[in-house]
Amino acid sequence: MRKLRGGELYKYQEREECGKVKYLVFWEFCPEDMDKAFKKFGEYMKEHEGNPGKYQEYLYPPHFTGQTKGFSIVEGTPEQINNVLIYWTPLLKLKYKPIREAAKYVEQYMKSK
Predict the structure, then answer these.
(1) What is the pTM of this model?
(2) Average pLDDT of 86-97?
(3) Does the CA dihedral 44-50-56-59 come out positive or negative?
């Protein structure tokens, strides 16, 4: 397998028509930025609703796990995830963890045997 250099991975993903991936997203902001974060969240939701396909799709909406931390479950393409990161940086710290359905993984694993 040939190694991809900078910028080639994105071109490869476009060429292969990468589908949407599900992610568990952890987010956090500084307590002193709470007013800014809440205001921007309201603006983001309007932006999100007004531009279908530009941003990730929420499968489980944002929920708090602490005063300034939380998570959500989303599905999106690399471009949609980039749009979210661009919108929220530097106010929000976002960490995306790809997730996959266990049943599909087990099925694929069993076929490989």
Answers:
(1) 0.76
(2) 96
(3) positive
Q: Is 91 helix (H, G, I), strand (E, B) or coil?
A: coil
Tell me phi and psi for residue 41, to 5 degrees: -60, -45
DSSP-derived secondary structure letter, 31: G
Residue 28 three-state SS: strand
Q: What is the dihedral of CA 98, 103, 108, 111, to 10 degrees?
A: 170
For the chain, the C-alpha Rg in angstroms (whole number) is 17
Closest CA to 28 of 66, 62, 68: 68
List, in order, residues 6 or more apart from 58 with CB less than 8 Å away. Answer: 72, 73, 74
- Per residue in 28-79, pLDDT tens? 999 999 999 999 999 999 999 999 999 999 999 999 999 999 999 999 999 9
Cα–Cα distance for residue pair 87/55, rounded to 1 Å: 10
